[in-house]
Design brief:
This protein is of the alpha+beta class. The chain has three domains: 3-170, GAF domain (Beta-Lactamase, 2-Layer Sandwich), CATH 3.30.450.40; 188-304, PAS domain (Beta-Lactamase, 2-Layer Sandwich); 317-469, Reverse transcriptase/Diguanylate cyclase domain (Alpha-Beta Plaits), CATH 3.30.70. The protein has helices spanning 3-17, 23-38, 82-89, 102-105, 107-114, 146-186, 209-212, 223-234, 240-246, 252-255, 300-314, 324-336, 351-358, 360-377, 404-416, 445-459, and strands at residues 42-49, 54-62, 76-77, 94-96, 121-128, 132-139, 191-196, 202-206, 261-268, 272-283, 289-298, 341-348, 383-388, 391-397, 430-437, 466-469. A six-stranded antiparallel beta sheet has the order 3-2-1-6-5-4. Strands 8-7-11-10-9 form a five-stranded antiparallel beta sheet, sandwiched between helices. Helix 1 packs antiparallel against helix 2, helix 2 packs antiparallel against helix 6 and helix 14 runs antiparallel to helix 15 (404-416). The longest helix has 41 residues, at 146-186. It starts with a helix and ends with a strand. The model has no long low-confidence stretch (mean pLDDT 87).
């Protein structure tokens, strides 16, 4: 084939490649065009990793019926094809008319090529400063045309280098744009890192001195080891285990299946409540998770607002006790576990008379005094709620039947101590109805409420401090 024909093919290939916008696609189209016109089994590009002294097959076109070898030809040791590199350093190509001739002189190279069914090949070096280093080659080209193909490959090597340079610029531009977007996003966060999930290597986008001070010089780029130091130094003991579990890269892909972000809240010594988050950045060619962003933001103020709203939604505004809805939920949680306990309904006797005689302001003082007395008499984990008006309820988990009378008498004793000056010595009397939940039976809130209400009905028949316990 004459040079003029090769130039026409090159021009046509370049026009075809430039139909694509992405450099990787341009390169694949470029080598495919040549592969079809040369009449070889395979055309490929290898790029060297000088630091690791290996070379990698980065682009490959295969003729119809030819098995691709790209996945197998990664991290090929320089030593296997060492004499190729000696030729490359001299600016020479490698032409092997028969791979069988290598069997005795270069057995490792022969084995590598023979397993790919390579019978002959032509390889041309590619060099551009320290940025691009590797070679382009064809397998099993027409035997009588190998010198001509060598010259042809030498002609396209310059164009391939230009396309590879364009690809590198494209990747750097994308990376810079991505890092720029990360930096903008980082304004929201106290710290931000981008992590390679497969290697654990991380890069700092943003940090704070308190975090930096925890970092160790050993394994400086290992996320898992460095985050362990941070957790040990700054994380509240209560949350250390959960933070380490959340930042475990070995389980991250499974946990992020079907989602682009994961979040976890914890308390640290820097600023109280924090939220850490993994955000999916990109995947590898097989769709596996490759890189994530790990971010941390301060949410202490947000948490305070959230807790305040939760408190308001669960609490009776006048007394600070649980309201009916939240109290019922908490009692139900105990009942569903078949927890043994005492449930009490409490009602102020003749409360309407107090309002009518002394006014609603005094009536409100009575409600608050009752609530304070119930809270003072009960334990921290007991459930104390205001049902509405002058009606209250208690649930004492773990209380047995034989303990109930002494508890109720003590409660009555505390009520007898209440003094409302405006009432001029008038006592606040209450009636109480009680029922029990048992470890060996399932009972609903509605049922235990009805049982206690029935006992309350009996108590109301007697003036003064009076109680009845429901008898099953």
């Amino acid at each position: 084939m004459k040079n003029i024909q090769y130039e026409l093919i090159i021009n046509e290939a370049l026009r075809s490649a430039l139909e694509y916008d992405i450099p990787d696609e341009q390169i694949n189209e470029f080598i495919e065009f040549f592969g079809k016109h040369i009449g070889s089994d395979r055309i490929y590009i290898f790029e060297d990793n000088v630091k690791k002294k290996v070379t990698n097959n980065t682009y490959e076109w295969c003729n119809e019926g030819i098995l691709p070898q790209k996945d197998m030809l990664q991290n090929v040791d320089f030593d296997i094809i060492g004499w190729w590199y000696e030729s490359f350093e001299k600016g020479e190509s490698v032409i092997i008319p028969s791979v069988k001739d290598l069997k005795d002189t270069y057995p490792s190279a022969y084995d590598l090529l023979n397993v790919q069914n390579v019978e002959s090949l032509v390889v041309i070096p590619m060099r551009y400063r320290d940025e691009i280093r590797g070679f382009v080659g064809v397998d099993n080209p027409p035997i009588g045309n190998m010198e001509s193909i060598s010259g042809f490959l030498d002609m396209i090597a310059t164009l391939l280098i230009s396309l590879l340079k364009l690809r590198n610029s494209f990747r750097k531009s994308n990376e810079a744009a991505k890092l720029s977007s990360y930096a903008a996003l980082a304004e929201i966060y106290m710290t931000m890192h981008i992590i390679n999930v497969k290697t654990g290597v991380f890069r700092v986008i943003k940090s704070v001195p308190e975090i930096d001070a925890c970092m160790q010089t050993k394994d400086a780029d290992n996320f898992s080891k460095q985050i362990a130091h941070v957790v040990e130094s700054l994380c509240s003991d209560k949350y250390k285990e959960s933070v380490l579990a959340f930042t475990d890269l070995s389980t991250l892909e499974e946990r992020m299946a079907g989602t682009n972000t994961l979040a976890h809240e914890f308390v640290c010594s820097i600023s109280g409540w924090c939220r850490e988050r993994f955000i999916k950045a990109d995947t590898d060619k097989d769709g596996k998770l490759l890189r994530v962003m790990y971010c941390m933001e301060v949410i202490d103020e947000e948490k305070r607002r959230e807790n305040r709203l939760l408190y308001l939604s669960e609490t009776d505004s006048m007394t600070g006790l649980y309201n009916r809805g939240s109290g019922e939920q908490k009692v139900t949680a105990f009942l569903q576990k078949k927890t043994e306990g005492l449930f009490c309904l409490i009602d102020c006797d003749k409360f309407k008379s107090i309002n009518d005689t002394y006014g609603h302001i005094v009536g409100d003082e009575v409600i608050v005094a009752v609530a304070e007395t119930l809270q003072k008499t009960c334990r921290k984990d007991d459930i104390v709620m205001r049902l509405g008006g002058d009606e209250f309820a208690l649930y004492i988990p773990g209380m047995k039947k034989e303990q109930a009378p002494s508890f109720i008498e003590r409660l009555f004793g505390e009520f007898a101590k209440i003094i409302i000056p405006e009432m001029k010595g008038r006592k606040i009397y209450i009636s109480l109805g009680a029922a029990f939940s048992h470890e060996d039976e399932q009972i609903s809130f509605d049922q235990i409420y009805r049982d206690a209400d029935g006992a309350m009905y009996e108590s109301k028949k007697t003036e003064g401090y009076c109680y009845h316990i429901f008898r099953e």
